[in-house]
Specification:
The chain is an alpha/beta fold. The protein is built from eleven helices and twelve strands.
């Protein structure tokens, strides 16, 4: 897909208060390109919602298709006016320069604001008798695309629990079908909760959903800084009567460190000061709140974003900029 030019004339953000407008010149902002994912991905929905919000603030942003987080991180690394939707697990790969990131250390990527959690759960059919993570020992567990984030975190959780599982790979649709037709014993998935593939399976056969449990979660999150503990309240899934203890990796909007500080500050503030993110941005942004910024322990924050969080009185856990 051809990318739209990023050399368009800069947008001008008007100051809302007439009195301060007389005292301060208008700030010129560059046109931004928000790199997202393929059609059908929540990344695309989120990117479009953010572009619409920024447009109402006088800032122009285009929405660009991509293959997902890793391609977005590379686009941001190479372009001062690019923004990207990024899974923190992929951001970790990019910062470390792992094979998944093409063995290239991404040194220019900075965090702006939190999007939503990608939370991980297990689903099993009631007929299997499985109700706890430790019972997955020796079982066939579907974990999505081969060598993807879900597989990586399943292996980490299994190691923390002291068990071994047989991993089955495939698309989300293949995972659901495999669970229903007996091709696997359990399904491990990560997405916005409630996870669509798990809901689909539960709609077609009686099942149960559970997580690794608090003890395993503690071990995994201590080892992997891109993850944070999460608790799903009863009722998140049909028939769920008890909380589910698991872990999640947040998705963040990222930018190049060369993005002007005033622009980074303005767009971060515009997003994180709306009264109701679900109403004012979109349902996909319901958890986009400043308090969630503490879940980033992978990327340094852009100075403009960091200024907003300081003004908001938040203490962040992110690494310092190198």
């Amino acid at each position: 897909m051809m990318r739209r030019s990023l050399l368009a004339a800069p947008a001008v953000l008007a100051v809302a208060d007439p009195a301060s407008a007389q005292a301060q010149p208008a700030v010129a902002h560059p046109t931004l390109a928000i790199h997202t994912a393929g059609q059908g991905s929540p990344f695309v929905t989120y990117g479009r919602a953010i572009a619409a919000l920024l447009s109402r603030q006088g800032i122009t942003a285009t929405v660009e298709a991509s293959t997902g987080s890793l391609q977005n991180l590379t686009a941001v690394e190479d372009n001062a006016n690019a923004l990207g939707t990024a899974f923190l697990g992929s951001a970790w790969d990019a910062v470390q320069g792992t094979p998944a990131a093409g063995n290239r250390k991404h040194l220019n990527v900075r965090a702006l604001w939190p999007m939503y959690e990608t939370s991980f759960q297990v689903a099993a059919l009631t007929s299997s008798g499985l109700t706890a993570f430790a019972q997955l020992a020796g079982k066939r567990v579907g974990a999505g695309p081969a060598r993807g984030p879900a597989e990586t975190f399943l292996v980490a959780a299994a190691e923390a629990a002291g068990i071994r599982v047989e991993i089955v790979s495939g698309s989300p649709a293949e995972m659901t079908q495999g669970l229903l037709n007996g091709g696997m014993d359990a399904l491990w998935q990560g997405a916005i909760v409630p996870i669509p593939s798990i809901l689909e399976a539960l709609a077609r056969a009686p099942g149960v959903v559970f997580g690794p449990g608090a003890e395993v979660v503690g071990r995994v999150t201590q080892r992997l800084p891109m993850l944070a503990p999460t608790t799903l309240p009863p009722g998140t899934y049909p028939g769920q009567t008890a909380p589910i203890e698991s872990f999640a990796a947040w998705n963040f909007i990222v930018a190049n460190r060369a993005l002007p500080e005033e622009t980074a500050y303005a767009i971060t503030r515009a997003v994180l000061t709306v009264a109701d993110p679900a109403r004012d941005i979109g349902q996909v942004a319901a958890t986009t709140r400043k308090e969630a910024a503490v879940n980033n322990r992978v990327l340094p924050f852009h100075p403009g974003a960091a200024r907003f969080y300081r003004e908001a009185g938040l203490t962040l856990s992110a690494p310092p900029a190198g």
